[in-house]
Amino acid sequence: QVHLVESGGGLVQSGGSLRLSCAASGRTFGSYAMGWFRQAPGKEREFVGAIRWDGGATYNLDSVEGRFTISRDNAKNTVYLQMNSLKPEDTAVYYCAATTSFIAPRRAQEYTYWGQGTQVTVSS
């Protein structure tokens, strides 16, 4: 069982930055691939990016366009999402998720554990 808690969301102006954190319980955090997803009101949950156990990351470039960076600190059982040059269309609830998959999958269905989400609002 893995328990995930996101933090770091809030209100930011367009062009600003935020860093989200996702703290995980459990001693096997280092073996999990971690994903970040987001869901805006009235829209489907969208893949943002994911990171493998060894730090290899993949992104939804159509959405984040190189503005976001995922990293992890296995010693702290934490994964981060650094978001720069934020736009109003980035407004959403952001979720982290964990999977035992060796790769960093893009589909939400491949993730077993989910956090409760943190709200990010970008004002224009």
Distance between the amino and carboxyl termini: 40 Å
What is the H/E order? EEEEEEHEEEEE
**What shape does the CA trace take?**
globular
Number of helices: 1
**Biggest β-sheet description:** 7 strands, mixed
Q: Which radius of gyration do the C-alpha atoms yield?
A: 13 Å
Strand content: over 45%
Count of DSSP strands = 11
Structure class: mainly beta
Low-confidence stretches: none
Description:
The protein has 124 residues and is mainly β. 3% of the residues lie in helices and 48% in strands. Strands 2, 4, 5, 6, 9, 10 and 11 form a seven-stranded mixed sheet that branches. A four-stranded antiparallel sheet has the order 1-3-8-7, with no helix packed on it. Strand 7 and strand 8 form a beta hairpin. It is globular and about 40 Å long. The termini are far apart. The model has no long low-confidence stretch (mean pLDDT 94).
List keywords for this structure.
124 residues, 1 helix, globular
In short:
With 124 residues, the chain is mostly beta strands. The protein is built from one helix and eleven strands.
Topology:
Blueprint: E1 4-7, E2 10-13, E3 18-24, E4 33-39, E5 46-51, E6 57-59, H1 61-64, E7 68-73, E8 78-83, E9 92-99, E10 113-114, E11 118-123
Parallel strand pairs: 2-11
Antiparallel strand pairs: 1-3, 3-8, 4-5, 4-9, 5-6, 7-8, 9-10, 9-11
